[in-house]
Design brief:
Rossmann fold; alpha/beta; Elongation Factor Tu (Ef-tu), domain 3; 3 domains
């Protein structure tokens, strides 16, 4: 069997290639260049060239052919343009998930097959397994600290049938040891960080290539807001009922209400004039408000994401400020003080039916059906107990415990329950969807 390894120059893909070669596969390596621009990036201009150089040496060391492919046009159209569009809408996309679905296991896979490959292998920490019905399961990797199944949550059966994950059954420490024993030049190379194939970026600078800056207010929301908010109190009552009677006791309208975040539009500031200094110069200021205060300024609400702490540049608080909401129309950023601020947490999210993906379609939920599962809404988040409720207009993901910073545009990935009696049982990634709210 002929296998093309996506060789990035990192230790994971290097060991994947080495293991496949040792197992007797007909292996060749291909390096992808997916990005040329350097505006907004925080690394040197030629990082990809260094990665390519290391990858080429690794291939030579292992004794496999090495090729180069430029997929930058496809990457810009399918990943980066999508990023810009999502940020412009006030949503926070996950380019790594898109990169795997659209580039590594689509555009790159097609190039590999044109060169005679039967399969494509990557250095992802995840596993696949064939079910009794012949379909392919996507499972978590063995290493709990490195599992990358979340990034593959949008793959379909055709893509999985062509995929190999040689290191999914290894710990990261074991991968490093194998690379060191084989004297691979990538053995001590640090893991890549930042946006897939772009690297670490100054996000506002990067996004300003297409999104314009526009100054607006940063509004700090006080606890008193929640004491007076009718929606917050109504949501609390619904959650209490769900806790006592079960999520299925709530109707579609009630679930939709719980999935809708607070928008803080009712915090309206009035201005007043006053005279300042010995010359009594007339100035304007906001009147004091019981629910909040204009705490600072920003350069564009679209450059901020929920849960963000850095980049606010607002001092004078005992605990850090976190972004709890953004309003693109009003160009406002709302923040709250402290990690336990009420605005950071919600218990229900929703996914549109057309943005819902099942890895094995035969496991999909029909309208009116529900499923106990475990879910994560970001990479490396521990799996959270949840109940999926499929309704006519949305899939509702209802968590046992409130979740911090449920972020529109990100992916919610849901996994099957584990067999508690089997320590080697790995959760199966059942499906995923783009969080609408």
């Amino acid at each position: 069997m002929k296998v093309c390894v996506g060789l990035s120059g990192g230790v994971d893909s290097s060991v994947a290639a080495l293991l496949l070669k040792q197992q007797g596969y007909d292996v060749f390596a291909m390096f992808m260049q997916n990005w040329h621009d350097t505006e907004g990036t925080l690394h040197g201009d030629c990082e990809w060239e260094e990665d390519k150089f290391v990858a080429e040496i690794v291939a030579r060391k292992i004794g496999i052919p090495f090729y180069f492919v430029d997929l930058s046009k496809e990457y810009r159209q399918r990943v980066v343009d999508y990023m810009f569009d999502e940020y412009a809408r006030g949503r926070t996309p996950n380019p790594d998930v898109l990169c795997n679905r659209e580039i590594k296991f689509d555009a790159f896979l097609q190039k590999a097959m044109e060169m005679g490959a039967d399969m494509v292998a990557t250095g992802h920490y995840c596993r696949k397994e064939q079910a009794p019905d012949g379909s392919w399961k996507l499972l978590e990797g063995i290493d709990p600290g490195k599992d990358q199944s979340y990034f593959l949550c949008q793959l379909n059966q055709e893509q999985l049938s062509r995929a190999l994950f040689p290191i999914g059954g290894l710990l990261k420490s074991e991968v490093r040891a194998i690379a060191a024993e084989a004297d691979l030049p990538s053995a001590d190379k640090k893991d890549s960080q930042g946006i897939c194939f772009v690297g670490k970026v100054d996000l506002p600078v990067f996004l300003q290539q297409k999104l314009k800056s526009a100054e607006g207010d940063v509004v700090e929301v006080f606890d008193s807001y929640y004491a007076d908010s009718q929606k917050f109190k109504s949501d609390a009552a619904l959650l209490a009922r769900a806790s006592n009677e079960g999520w299925e006791s709530l109707c579609d309208t009630e679930l939709a209400a719980l999935s809708e975040p607070l928008n803080y539009k009712d915090i309206v500031f009035e201005t007043e004039t006053y005279r300042s200094g010995k010359h009594h110069i007339k100035k304007t200021r906001y009147k004091q408000h019981p629910w909040g205060v204009v705490a600072g300024r920003h350069e564009g609400a679209q450059f901020y994401t929920l849960g963000q702490r850095k980049g606010l540049a607002i001092g004078g608080h005992a605990s850090p400020l976190f972004v709890i909401s953004t309003d693109i129309a009003l160009n406002r950023v709302y923040v709250g003080e402290g990690e336990q601020h009420k605005g950071l947490y919600r218990s229900v999210l929703r996914i549109k039916p057309d943005e819902l993906h099942w890895v094995r379609p035969q496991l999909s939920l029909g309208i009116g059906e529900s499923l106990l599962c475990r879910c994560r809404i970001r990479y490396r988040q521990p799996l959270q107990d949840a109940n999926l409720l499929m309704r006519q207009d949305a899939l509702f993901v209802c968590f046992d415990e409130p979740q911090r910073s449920i972020t529109p545009g990100q992916f919610a990935a849901f996994y099957g329950l584990q067999d508690a009696s089997d320590p080697y049982d790995a959760p199966e990634l059942l499906g995923s969807g783009v969080i609408e709210a």
